[in-house]
Amino acid sequence: MDSATSDRATLSSTADNGLKIVVVGGFGVGKTTMVRSVSEIRPLNTEETMTRAGEAVDDLDGVHAKTSTTVAFDFGRITLDERSVLYLFGAPGQERFWFLWDRLFSGTLGAVVLVDTRRLADSWYAIDRLEHHGTPFIVACNDFGGPLHSEQQIREALDLSEDVPLVECDARDRSSSKYVLITLVEHLAALSAARLQAAGTTASAAAAPTAALAAAGPTPEPAP
What residues form the membrane-spanning segments (predicted)? Predict the structure, then answer.
């Protein structure tokens, strides 16, 4: 499933402010799909066909139809304005690739933890590593048509504090994925404002990236 290239693919020569967000989560929760759905360029991905050799190490419970997997990372881009560009990195979900995560977290503003509510335990490691690094994050529940859970049930299952935003999404849908990114940026702005207030400094919340994400023009839908 490749994403078509939009006519905004050329990066402006004035772009000099790169912002980084990482999408993490368990195996098969939709990280590659989310990056593809919002990227304005044809995403770089490292998808490889799954083979019998991986049966002993990759747990396919709940994702039996999955035929390919990310073996390094996914990469996408969203131009916010003439100077600022948002870079999206999707981390591989299998335990054997977790050693890559610490490097991917380097320099990131924040992260989206994408979860499949049918397999909540698969997201524990992602949350643990983000908390270890002190990286701000939100949690997005990708819709796989599983049983419904209340917000409180999900928070308890993930041991998620009340100050971490929890949203629902469909990673296949660009508008839904944009909403997830906007929620993360708003969360980061609120954290920044709280730190400034605690330090006795007044400053307006960083609304520009949020507005730019919301105003980003439509891109072609990924081919099925």
Answer: none
pTM: 0.76
Which residue is associated with the tokens 């131009």?
Answer: 79
CA distances from 190 to 7, 54, 69, 163, 184 (A): 33, 42, 35, 11, 10
pLDDT for 179 equals 96
C-alpha separations of 34 from 55, 67, 89, 181, 206 in Å: 25, 17, 10, 10, 24
H helices of the chain, in order, are 31-38, 101-105, 124-133, 151-158, 174-198, 208-215
The answer to whether 218 and 3 have CB atoms below 8 angstroms apart is: no
Q: What DSSP assignment string belongs to 8-69?
A: T-SPPTT--EEEEEEEEESTTSSHHHHHHHH-SS--B--EEE--GGGTTTS--TT-TT--EE
| Residue 51 to residue 49: CA distance in whole angstroms | 6
| Low pLDDT (below 50) residues in the chain | 1-8, 50-56, 58, 60, 62-71, 205, 219-224
